[in-house]
Specification:
single chain; 441 residues; alpha/beta; 14 helices; 17 strands; globular
Length: 441
């Protein structure tokens, strides 16, 4: 069951409040390069990204943002843009009001929004600008740029009095000022309490525990401050990212208990290729299954000249595989074995899946509910007919040495047997006819 969080409207894209889990991504272009950024945002949106974040790190980038928005609008690409700010976001948004207006959301990192006396001033400026332009903010805490003053204070509190005897050790707790933001008064014990021989002992928490607590408090204290300045709770999204799977899971589990803000999930610096995909899927899959998370990003390190849209595809596949969203028809395909030494079924499965993906933009407009279609492409007589019967429409191809015939099943009943060299085209035509018959008006 999904955790009930506060709904946030980002230029028409709803995050939290029971809305479908939103897929988002980030460009890796120089935002000052308008053409390159527009092209990549359009590619990410076409792949299915419902929010796209762009780096705004210098004057030239801030100046380019309104032109990027204008170009995208002319192309019919309405995906909301999120500005990613570090260090000088307050200055860029103040100096470039058209940038502030063109963005739908501002990402703020409380670990580098400012230091010492400047922190509160610069953070307040960002929040006041969000209020002025009616924008959403994401308070994005990252363990690689955590507020050092907060972390040091919590580390010191954790160790306070440990060297004394049990009777002398104070029963201190963390100075947790986050209850106003989370709505739950739950101070966190600074040390574990144990009793031995009628003496109470206090053991310090591990450094990892204190790090996790600092990440959570950084997010909640920042959100509380934003509310004090005047920003509505329905304009705030939180994220608390690390690159360690187990730490990420524990942080979000705790944050979800202590807050009802909408949550953005992501494993930062997940890595390249299969490592990044597996790590992100493992961490986010557990949290999503527990009802935690309102929007996700899969942070993959791209291969040289790699496809940036891969992170969008992985995010969509994760949500669809877990049953939280349905983007395209499901294709069940045989994994292959010694009975299927021919690549015929593999090629057909890829051809059918590519056909479904490429056809979906047109089908989605014409056939309501077509994304819920289930298709099976199986490879031999062992499981092929049975699996094909369970799908809405399925084909069972011959295995090695089997009669070259491919029975097609529609809604559990055998509808035809295909033969010849153009089985793929025959099956695609049957698929088109079935979609028209079932989903057509």
């Amino acid at each position: 069951m999904r955790k009930n969080t506060i709904a946030v409207n980002i230029d028409g894209v709803m995050v939290g409040g029971g809305a479908p889990i939103v897929v988002q991504s980030m460009t890796n272009t120089d935002t000052a390069d308008i053409e390159a950024t527009v092209n990549q945002v359009a590619q990410l949106a076409q792949a299915g990204s419902e929010l796209v974040r762009i780096t705004v790190d210098k004057n030239e980038a801030a100046a380019a943002v309104p032109y990027i928005r204008e170009r995208l609008d002319k192309m019919g690409v309405s995906v909301p843009l999120v500005g990613d700010f570090h260090y000088i976001g307050h200055k860029l948004l103040s100096d470039y009001p058209d940038c502030a207006k063109a963005l739908a959301k501002y990402r703020i990192n409380p670990g580098n929004v400012g230091f010492k006396a400047k922190r509160d001033i610069q953070f307040s400026t960002l929040i006041e600008l969000a209020i002025k332009y009616n924008k959403v903010i994401r308070i994005g805490v990252n363990w690689g740029s955590l507020d050092e003053e907060l972390l040091t204070r919590l580390m010191n509190e954790n160790m306070a009095g440990v060297s004394g005897s049990g009777a002398e050790r104070p029963t201190a707790t963390y100075k947790d000022e986050t209850s106003g933001a989370s709505g739950a008064e739950r101070p966190t014990a600074i040390r574990e309490r144990t009793t031995t021989n009628n003496k109470t002992n206090f053991e310090p928490h591990s450094a990892d525990f204190v790090m996790r607590e600092a990440i959570i408090q950084s997010a909640l204290l920042s959100a509380k401050r934003a509310e004090e300045i005047g920003l509505g709770r329905d304009k705030i999204i939180l994220s608390t990212k690390t690159s360690n799977v187990q730490s990420l899971i524990k942080i979000y589990q705790d944050l979800s208990k202590r807050s009802d803000y909408a949550l953005h999930l992501g494993l930062t610096e997940a890595g390249m290729g299969s490592k990044g995909i597996v790590a992100s899927s493992a961490a986010l899959g557990i949290l999503l299954q527990q009802g935690i998370g309102d929007t996700i990003r899969i942070s993959l390190t791209p291969e040289p000249d790699g496809d940036r849209t891969l992170e969008v595809k992985v995010a969509r596949e994760l949500l669809q595989t877990m049953g939280f969203r349905q983007f395209v028809p499901e294709v069940a395909a045989c994994p292959g074995c010694g009975r299927t030494t021919s690549t015929t079924f593999q090629l057909l499965a890829r051809e059918i899946e590519d056909h479904l993906i490429s056809s979906m933009p047109k089908w989605r407009d014409k056939y309501k509910g077509v994304e819920n279609l289930n298709v099976a492409v199986m490879g031999c007589i062992v499981n092929g007919p049975g699996e094909s019967k369970h799908a809405d429409i399925g084909i069972s191809l011959p295995g090695t040495g089997e009669t070259p015939a491919a029975p097609v099943f529609i809604e559990g009943k055998k509808a035809a047997t295909l033969r010849g060299v153009n089985i793929a085209e025959q099956f695609k035509q049957m698929l088109a006819d079935y979609i028209e018959q079932r989903f057509g008006s």
